[in-house]
Every structure is written in structure tokens, then in C-alpha cells.
Amino acid sequence: MPPKLKQKQHEFRMKKPIKTLIHNLSFQDTYDLITLSAALCGLLYSYALLSFSLVFLAVRVLFVGNMREKWQKISDNRCILIAFLSFFALHLISLLWTNDLKTGWLEVNHKLPFLIVPVALCVMSPVKKNEVLMPLFVFYLLLLFFGTMFATFRYVFDANADVRTLIPFANTIRFGINIAFSVALICIYLFSKPKNKWAICIFLLLGLWFIVFLFMIQALTGIVILCVLSFVMSVIMVFRRRTKTAYTLATLLIMALIIFIFAVRKEYKEYFTPKPLYTQPLKTHTHLGNPYVHLKDNYIENGCYVNEYLCNDEMIKAFERRTGLKLTDDCSQSPQEVCTETLKRYLNSKGLKKDEAGVLALTDEDITNIRNGNANYIYAKRFSLKPRLYQTFFEFERYFDGNGSFKNSSLTQRWELILNGLRVIGHNNLLIGTGTGDNINELKAEIDRSPHRESFNNHDPHNYYVYIFVQFGLLGLGVLLFFLFYPPTKKGLWRNNVFLSLFVIMISGMLVESLFNLFSMMMLYCIVCCILLFNDYEF
User: Fold this and answer.
1) Which residue did the predictor score with more confidence, 137 or 456?
2) Which of 172, 438, 441, 459 could disulfide-link 434, Cβ–Cβ 3.0 to 4.6 Å?
3) Given this model, what pLDDT does residue 22 score?
4) Burial class (CB in 10 A: 0-12, 13-18, 19+), 213
5) Those residues with Cβ within 8 angstroms of residue 102's Cβ, 6 or more apart along the chain or in another chain
6) Phi, psi torsion values for 281, nearest 5 degrees
């Protein structure tokens, strides 16, 4: 065939890559690609679509393909499947010692991904790398990219947008974890030394954008997990390769982490270090002659003591006169009311005294921030992690110096929920726990016995290891570790960078979130892990 004709045929193929891809796929491959694509879309944005994809996977096991071949694949991988199914079986068997069978069966139903996904991915294997896995990889990144673009659009054009609800149907923590995993996938792809320079540029920019996005939406859990992942993978990379490039990249990553830690430390010092004003004798009266209250309770925010230089009546009258709004002690106020505590803290955050002079010094933008419920002018800052850090500092300050208060606080309430779970462990059977259905009732009952019961918003310990210990005791903890460690050890996946990244994310994430109680996180782990377990691909 003449060279010119070959070149024209190659150009024709390149112009129609989708058509070529479809021609290369059998019915089973097409079914698998559509099912897994639906699962990826569902685990990010739609619980219903994720449920449908689980049904499609079950159909794949029962009705699609040659049953004899499928049974042979199951037989060949029986040890891996037993490890996966053991975790599901534990939920089923422990119904024997639970009293609340209704809740128990709901829990068993919720854990169906641990039964269906491993078997489905086993019978699907081998999954074609170029025709199925690479399109899924690109589709996953595109789904995340479109989500970040939608969130950014809302954030830019809606001044009052809540960063926690920027993406409809997507939880910020779960989305942040997926972003962290996608950054790991992009880095692994770039380290594979692709030849296409355009692909290198696009993926590099996409990875950087995802990192910027995490900081923009103040996804603290995602940022911390990404930092942990970066540190662990840097250490592993150095020990594996011991090359100049590995040392350089590891050094750069660790330096970035150190810079981040020092930046957080700087904000911490600014928040908790009293300003020079408090080293001088305190004034006793306002400019109107009303007495100040100076409470020495160490309640500090932005370097200013909240309960010093306080003239409550004067502050309230001045604000109501200026804005026409009513101040109230109830912070769940109506649109025509403002919480007194919010006003007091906002004035304090700007270094203003809590009196008429302080109220008159507020700008119109400050008044708007106060009406929107911002108790610190930093909270209104956009495109910055600083608001999230200051909210965290406030939570810890109130918890340790404010009589253990943790109402409406995220991190400190999580800590109290962990302690609540540990108390439940102490009251029940250490060997087998409460059983599948009784753990929720036991956690709620322990909260009801707490003097701070009104401060709790839920009962979940937000630590999956504690949750499993409550539910199944030492038996459950042992089965969980077997489920997590045996399959990769059996298949030698500890040198697979994709698996290591997912494993580090899940292991660290389970310290701060009950990840395997979340349908999307169960599906993410099962799908990615099983693809790697049942297909001998190097990543």
C-alpha cells in the first residue's frame, strides 16, 4: 500500500476515534463500559444512578455472558472473593445477636456493594485497558472538572453562596476525597511519561486546578487527606526508586507541606496572640460615659478578647438605630433580626470596641456580613482557606476554654462523638459488639445520657474504626483488617501506585469519616480495588 494512502487512512481513523472505539467493543464490553460510567457519575452526583449501576452489575453477573466462563473466573479468584465477602457476611451473621432486626436488615441491604461489586468485576475480567479503563479514567476526570466549574461559577456570581452546597447532590467531604484521588491518578499518569505533550499540559493544568479548587471551597478534610497522601507517596517513591528525580520531587512535596504547616501556624498565632492594646491599662468608660465590662475569661478571637471593652446596651441601641434591625439573643433569628452574639464577635474581630463608636465604624459591607450571620469579618473572605481555619480555631477555643461547648461545631463535635462511641464500647461485649442493628440505638442512648445531649446533631462517631468496634467488637475489627489487607497482599498490589493512593486515602479518611457507611465511598473502593485485583495491569 502506498505511504500516502496509509497516511490518509490513519488520519481518517484519528478523526473518528469514538466510532473506532465502538467497533472494537463487544456487547459485553459496551455493557461494562456503560455500567461503570453510570457508577462513576452516580458516586459523584446521584444516589439513584449509583443504585441503578449496582443493579446493572448484578444483572451482569446473572444474565450477561457465558455462565460456565463466569463460574470458572469466580473459582480462580475464590480467595480474593472470600476476603471481600467476609466483610458482608459479618453484617449478615451478626444479626444473630442483634435485637433491632429491622435496622439490621437495612444495614445489610446498605452493604450490598461488598457482595455484588467484587463478583461482578471478577466475571468482567479482563477489562480492556485502552477501550474501557482509559475512557473511564478520562470520564471520571471530566465529571470532576465539570463539577468544579459549576461550583466555581456559582461561587463567583453568588456572593452569599455557601461553599458546602456549591455542587448540587454532592457532599463537600466526599467530593474532596474524589478530588484528592483524581490528583493522585493524574500524578501517576504523568509519571508514566506519556509522549503526547498536549496531554501532559492538559493533565498538569487539571491537577493544579483541582488542588486550587480544594482550597477555594475550604475542603479541609480533602486538603488534609491530600497532604497525608503526598507525604506517604513521597516517602514510598524515595525508597523505591532512589534516583535524583525521586529525591527532588519528594523534597519539593515535603517542602510544600512544611510551607503549608508554617502558614497555618502563622494564622494560629495571629488568632490567639493578644494585640498590644491589652498590654495597656484598660479604659473604664465609653466616649458617652457608659461603663465598660471587662470579663477576664480568655475568650479570644483575632487577637482581641471578646468580653472586654463591652458595653452591651450602648452597642444594641446604636446598631438598632443605625440599621432598623432588632437584636436578639436567639441566633436562629428571622431576616429582620440579628443575633447579639454575632454583632459582638464581628466588632471584636475587626478590633473595634463593643459600643456606639464601634458600631458607627462599621461599613455597609460589614452590616451586610452581620445580617448574613458572619460572626467574624474573616468568614466573609472568598477564595481563601483562612475562613475555614478561623472557624476551626474558634471551635477549639470554645471547646477548651468555653466549658466544653461544641454545639454547631464540626471538629469538636466529631471528637465528642468518638468519645461517645468509646463509652458504648466499654458498656458492651468487647468481643462481638452490639450486632448489626443495635449499634445505632446504643449510640443514641449514650448521647441521651450525656449532659451535652442538646449539642449533638447526630450519633455517628465519624471514625469508622470506632464504628466497627461498637458494632462488631474485636471480631469486626479483625475482619475489617483482613478485608483491607489480605486481597492486595495476595495479588501483590502494594507496588501498584493507584491502589496505594486509594488505600492511603481510605485508611486516613476512615479516621475522620465513617467512609464505608457512605454508599458512594463503598462503590469507589470496591470498583477501583476490584479492577486492580482482577486485572494484571501495571500503573
Assistant:
1) 137
2) 438
3) 52
4) buried
5) 437
6) -60, 135
- Contacts (Cβ under 8 Å, ≥6 apart) of 425: 433, 466, 469, 470, 473
For the chain, the C-alpha Rg in angstroms (whole number) is: 28
125 and 73 Cβ atoms separated by less than 8 Å? yes
Output the DSSP codes for 462-494: S-HHHHHHHHHHHHHHHHHHHHHHHHHHHHTGG
Q: How far is CA 279 from CA 107, 216, 446, in A?
A: 58, 37, 45
Which residues are bridge partners to 327 per DSSP?
338
User: Residue 12: pLDDT above 60?
Assistant: no
What would the grid cell of residue 260 be?
A: 503549608
In angstroms, how far is the first alpha carbon of the chain from the final one?
37
Predicted confidence at residue 242, as pLDDT, reads 72
CB 160 within 8 A of CB 372: yes
Going from the C-alpha of 96 to that of each of 89, 444, 451, the distances in angstroms are 12, 21, 33
pTM: 0.87
The residue among 257, 269, 230, 231 whose CA lies nearest residue 389 is: 269
312 C-beta neighbours (distance < 10 Å), count: 15
pLDDT at 90 over 80: yes
